[in-house]
Here is the input.
Amino acid sequence: MATATKKTAAKPAAAAKKPAAEKPAARKPNAAFMKPMTISPTLAAVIGAAPMPRTEVTKKVWEYIKKHNLQDAENKRNINADDKLKAVFGGKKQVSMFEMTKLISGHLS
Here is the structure.
């Protein structure tokens, strides 16, 4: 008799599952990240002067880094700065990718 109660207890749990069609919608991007930002003249020398969202600024900087092969060969998390990026990075020759985003945010308003 104990097996019969286990079977009946399992049926309501199976019925409570959501159908596949009711998946949650994709997340909407945060409006603060999509707001066009004014770019400093120093950063504009690298990515252009047109106002763009933070997400686009990051993409453009990475495009520049990849195009000029500035990622460190030994440690891919480090960026070796050329003359233009050195001005953006406050004179540093090498920064980590995490430090890079912090330094770039100082050039946006």
Summary: The chain has a mean pLDDT of 83. Helices lie at 2-15, 31-34, 41-47, 54-67, 83-88, 97-105. Residues 31-109 form a domain with the MDM2 fold (CATH 1.10.245.10).
